[in-house]
non-specific serine/threonine protein kinase
Amino acid sequence: MPEIEHVPENALFGKYELGRLLGCGAFAKVYYGRNVRTGQSVAIKVINKKRISSPNLMSNIKREISIMSRLNHPYIVKLYEVLATKSKIYFVMEFVKGGELFAKVAKGRFSEDLSRKYFQQLISAVGYCHSRGIFHRDLKPENLLLDENGNLKVSDFGLSAVTDQIRPDGLLHTLCGTPAYVAPEILTKKGYDGAKVDVWSCGVILFVLNAGYLPFNDPNLMVMYKKIYKGEFRCPKWMSSDLKRFLSRLLDTNPDTRITIHEILKDPWFKKGYKEPKFHEEYAKVEKDEAPQITSLNAFDLISFSSGLNLSGLFENSQGSVSDGERFVSRASPEKLMEKVEEVGKAERLRLKRRKEWGVELEGQNGNLGIAIDVYRLTDELAVVEAKRTVGDAQSFKETWNNKIRPALQVGGN
């Protein structure tokens, strides 16, 4: 007689048992989980809706659900289903035992052969995404996991773009990514090709795997951006000449001449020992009606990510919200931008206090508002504007910034 299945009383939706905490972010926690019916190990990403203070973040979540449900590849973390309650969203995903590739490379650089193996798996996954009109846009070792067999798994599609976000000029315009891995054309704000941006990030990852350090790095963010913009990096002496040549094509600052995925597959360094992965039945092409079940998500209709000039996603320790601050790129001169800030400050009767050449603090008359604004020259043509709330509540900052100061800075083709 078959044993009666026992479902723990506290099982999530009567289906998943939550275990130890695997990781923690600004608005999400990832737990180890177990399907109580099958015993299968899963990872459950729990998002607290109350902590999602920005429409951008909600767009990221909706898009991540939409994208991950369309991907079925041996080197991409699989999304099984999405569940939701009034206060939380649960992503039930494949559990990847080996942890982050970042943790492994942090202990020491990889051999050229091992670097090539992981890079081949990365390109297989990225090429698959591109063929389905999906661009990751935040590829870095922290978003690459390893399974128990030492194979790579791409995760975290929160910043991904899909082809329906491409404007009539054929380019993407949302600024995002992680500073050290971001492609130079993203900094110029002229629009960019999502596939070429991913190739650049793959190049940075390959460099890190074999060198053990970043090709573009500096404690000063602006200095690092200038290095990226100019493509200034040096390969260590232990790299083979073939790998150095290959990296120079991956980290070509000109997206028009940068190597493509198709060309990567033909490169002599890349091709060594490369085998296109054979899809098991579970990774066969998913038909529409076989996509992961999206449960209780009526309030989360999947919509495209609204493009904008908020650069928050480009910077560490920022979650895309303007409640505490924002950074964006402008084509206006620093002098012109500071002039506009001072005009608004005087019009709004805010006290102005100069901090440095291109920096100012704006303070409310009754001390209920404080905003620090700094402008940095990125290149001859571009400046970065940074605004931070220093005093007062988030709502006052948001209203003053969004309705008064930010619109005034839309100058010089910004």
User: Anything to note?
Assistant: The two ends are 72 Å apart (CA to CA). The chain has three domains: 16-94, 101-300, 322-408. The longest strand covers residues 383-392.
